[in-house]
Design brief:
The complex is a heterodimer of chains A (550) and B (832). By secondary structure, chain A is mostly helical. Chain A is 59% helix and 0% strand. The longest helix of chain A is centred in the first third of the chain and has 24 residues. The radius of gyration of chain A is 35 Å and the shape is elongated. The N terminus of chain A is likely disordered. A two-stranded antiparallel ribbon of chain B has the order 1-2. Chain B has a two-stranded antiparallel ribbon with strand order 3-4. The longest helix of chain B has 62 residues. About 20% of the residues of chain B have low confidence. Classes of the chains: A mainly alpha (550), B mainly alpha (832). Chains A and B meet through helix 19, helix 20, helix 21, helix 23 and helix 24 of A and helix 14, helix 15, helix 16, helix 17 and helix 23 of B.
Chain lengths: 550, 832
Amino acid sequence: MPGLAVNGAVRKRKRDDVPATKRKAPKATTGESTQNKILQLEEQILQGREHYNNIVELQTLVAKFETKPRAATLAAVSLCRVFCRLTAGESLVKSNSASDADTQIVSWLKARLRDYVDGLTAWLGGEQGSTALTLLMRVVKAEVSQTSKRGEQAWKTESGTFYKVVKALLENEDVEGARQEFVEAFVEEHDDVRFYTFSAVKHVLKNSTDGQAETTGSAVDLLSRIEGVPESEDQLEDWYGEPPSPTSNKQLLSLNAHRKAAQEAWLAVFRSPLTKDHRKRILTIATTQILPWFTTRLELLADFLTDSFDSGGSTSLLALSSIFHLMTHQNLEYPEFYTKLYSLLDDEVLHSKHRSRFFRLLDTFLNSSHLPAAMVASFIKRLSRLSLQAPPGAIVWVIPWVYNMLKQHPACTFMLHRPYHPGHRIYASENELEDPFDMACLDPNTSGAIDSSLWELETLQSHYHPNVATLAKILSEQFTKREYVLEDFLDHSYATLIGQDLGKELKSTRPPEVEYVIPKRILTAEVEEGGDGKALSRVGRLLEGALGAL
Amino acid sequence: MPPSQLKALKTSLREKGITAPSKSRKDKKNGPPTTTSGRDRATALAKIRTEMNPYEYRHISSRPAKFPSTSVKGSYKDVLLRRPGVSVSKGEEVRRKQLLPEMRGRLKSGGLVDRRIGEGDGGMGEEERAVARFARERGRNVFDLEGSDEEGGGGGLLTHGGRAIADLEDDDMKLSGDEGGSDEDDGFLVRKRQREDEEDEVVDEQPDVKKSKKEVMTELIAKSKLHKYERQKTKEDDDDLRDKLDAGMADLLPLLRAQVANNLPPPPPPKPVEVDGDVSKINPERQKLLDGMDRGAADREYEKRLRELARDTRAAPSDRTKTAEEKAKDAAEKVKELVIRREKRMRGEAVSDDEEVEHERDDSEEAAVVDEYGNEELGDDAEEFGLASAAVAKVEKVQHVDEDDFDFDADLVASASEADEESASEDDSEVEDDDAAPAAEDNEEDEFISGILGRGANAVPIADPSTKTANTSESLACPRTHADFLALIKDNAVEELELPTLIQRLRSQYLPSLAAENKAKMENFSRVLVEHLVYMAEHDQEMAVMEQVIRHLHSLSRTYAVAIAEALRARLGAWVEGSSSSEGGGGGLGVGKGDLVVLVAIGEIYPTSDHFHQVVTPAFTGVGRWLGLNAGVKGMGGEKGRVGALMVGLCVKWVGGSGRFVPEAVRFTLAALGSRGGAIGEHLENLKGMADLWKEKSAFLEIFSPFVPILRQLGKPARPTLQHLTALLDASRQARKPLMLHHHRPQALRLSNPKFEEGFNPDRHYDPDRERSEAGKLKKEFKREKKGAVRELRKDANFVAREQLRSKRVEDEEHKRRERRLVAEIQSESRN
């Protein structure tokens, strides 16, 4: 449409002249004039087809985002209004009876719309991300609010604005803020947005080939933010587009369809290459946010979980709770679960940051009194051994846990008190005592721990921290308490222990004890004959070394 | 079922022999007539009648008779029955006697009490009264002193309110409330008891056989002779005793003089003991005065003496100077006591306070009870062991020190320090200075103040204070802040090595005994010194000087313990929060140079073997934290290895006394040796130290076996350590025994209350709680008394009402009569 273009160009020139003459005018005036001009352009567009070239002019303004952000934003807003009106007015729809010129105009408009959407998606990562997202979703709303058939198409097609938005959210970098806003403002609020987001995510993941790791990461991020899971079909009632009716769009009303969409999205994520961090993130939310989607087809999730559990390390720890949930609630069969659990007790577990989470689960797993005593004894012994190098925060939990275990499995109390009897394996050899427990044994049922003794915990009775030492003494006192509430012992760390000690103010009535002998030498030592006069004691040498190193 | 009345009557009649059972004719003929004689029969019948009358007798207790076992043993009828009719009439009589006169005299004040014999006694005729009075008058003998108090109201007797004093004394106490005139309200019970008492007296009184005058006199004489003899005897005994004491005086005197030489005026020189000792002895001074000395001079002399005396007592040494050996012995004892105390603290025992421990145990029992009911929500299990939740700890940190009852650690420390104070106050060497340090410590203190420092023991060339005499003479300003101190150092151009001298001068200049405000100043200075120690470490100053500063801090800690401890704790807190390492150049290791030196200082100043210590425990936890956080990370070589070696070295040193176990130290050393970073030699030495320290631990094998393969890999430099360790491991394996931790006495089952009693008697109380049963008894008695009092009051009121009614009636009658008479008179007059 050359005429239109010329017209627009002429206007543009005119417009350009005005600021040129008023160069000295204050900036606010310029801004206002720009604003007025944009509004004028917008009005003209809505007046008739002959002004459609104004769209191009506005888009050039939008494109100048780098230099004139304010004007660009204003232009974008008005363009959004324009496109919404146009869409609502069905100007973007080819009708069968339309003339050739009309068809041309429609496809031209569609191309402009694509340009506009592409331009805005580029903004998502920047400062104007929020505005861009809002504008895009406006357009989406206009698109999907068309009569049912076309609305549904607008959700689904790859050329639809919605798909483009989701794709941009997944593939662009630095769009975390936009993703969060997208989930909070749209996905969580509207059931249809969520439904189509899942399917869009699935398609994006399927289609993407290059830079997959980032895309997957973004997908995990996006999906893990979705927290609301509908539990019944009654809850499906908030719609962004046209409310579905049983005749037109019935899958939106079916809970199973929603589930299926979510499952497919997640499965697409599982199939893509996952980094360790992504896997951990998924596992952290698995029980609360993923499991509910999979209520009907658990086996799909179970594979992923068992894979994670078998991979070892902290990933296993995280997979534990989901596995256990599946085992107890969904009757999942996991062979050798306790052997696997036993193998998780390694050097790192008492130092890991997921310690309290693991402890909580471990207590749950071993809480049954129907477990074989030999196995429980192995767990006790292994944890005791590990606590010989553990931080106080871990020891403080292990000891009352052992107490509770011993209370629950009286057969294990021989580990604390074993009077002489020839039947005991530990008394088998004559002069030298051999520990029947084998730390290297992988099977908790045959490790021989039940024939051993808990020397480790007895040693911990002289732990350097007074509270830990006192706590450890409960094991050699009478077991009169029914059980300890382990939750109280879970969240202790160095920081809390020190904070507790330092938190108490000193009182002048109770001054701290002072060593009564003032040593003659602390850092220095007697100079030997012929020495250079710089002899240091051991502490002095160590201190010198440390100070020198820092 | 109780027997019917009729049956009971029949049996009692038969028992008394009033009605005989029907006899066979044969018996009638042979046996004597069994029926009793007429008079006996009458009394027996009367008795039976009263017994069978349900209104004449009543059971004392309302409990039915079918529980005969329940109450007091003894003859059943005597004790269990009472006669309400009789007691009522008796009470009435008593009331008439006591209450009626009171009532009549109620609104009257003053007046005359007629105590003449027979007055007011209607039963006595005029004649009889006169006779009785005459007999009384004749019986009185004016010269007979003993018999004078026979009758109250006698002429020679002291009286009060018309009554003999002797009589008054008894009930003075009881009637003390009467004087306020409010006897109406509170006198009743007492009065009742009085009445009862009087009745008792009447019963108890026995007819007194009157002694003749002669008998009385002989008795009197005998008595006085006996007294005289006894007096003489005691006097003789006393004399003997005095002689004996005087004989030993010569031995005793020198001792006395040594002790009290300055305390007392010189004792009189030992004189030959005067046996007949009745010669009047007189003070020579007094003799002089009597002899005519000038009065004023004597007074002056007296004043002088008095003042001297007063001064003497104050100046007198409370103890004689001790010899060197005694001093050494005392010091040794003191040290021994301190060591014992330290060991107690190490075991975490309360040093002297039994009460607190008791209290604590009570509390824990309470907690246990709570748990038994399953209300675990109520108590935090962890808190019992001082492991409050993190949130709580933070709150505490803000300000509120929650005095947790369970926090035995704090208690222990408290009791220890209390004991300290006690022992300090017991110490006789209470100097004016309030730190009350033992003598040995004083000596050490001197070292820091008066400048022996740096001469003998320390070979480090520290400037001799004597060379700086010019400087020493001018006074220094006590620095308030660290900046002040640095300025002071700069102004005086103090060399690095002369710093101890400066501190010494400051300390001697601001001795707390010199001025009142010096204490606060030195307290501030102690804080400054802690800061300076950190500063010195951060500026890489001389080790020897740092050592001296630490020693100064240590000696200052004796007096300013709280200030220094607070400064150190603040430093620790900053380290833990991670704000100190940045300035100290920690290089990402989370520890600065200043922190390291502060840790070294803490280990030296405070007893690290204590179970809990306000400064050492957080410091130790901080060290453990550092070791724990840095053991896992890679890059053990270089600085981390060095700092770690120091940390582990500190751990080993700190637990040297108590043999406590430090898991983090083991882990770190294992990691350091395993990664073959720097400072292998130091770590090997640490390992050896740890192994020696913990060789007695039952888990020695488990702790140290992981080191063996690593040491093997290290090869030659580790060989001696490996050999040492292997030997220790073998020994430990030999010595190891299975655990036997539970040789406890089986726990007794809880006794429940009430427990089962054989032959349970509902009237008795089986409460094992003594206090409660006593309280119950008291309550019961109170209730009974109250009830009795109320009943008595009611009866009294009834009586009073009755009497008033009667007197009113009498008055009315009188009035009517008079009226009638008057009317009759008037009528007759008018008729006339």
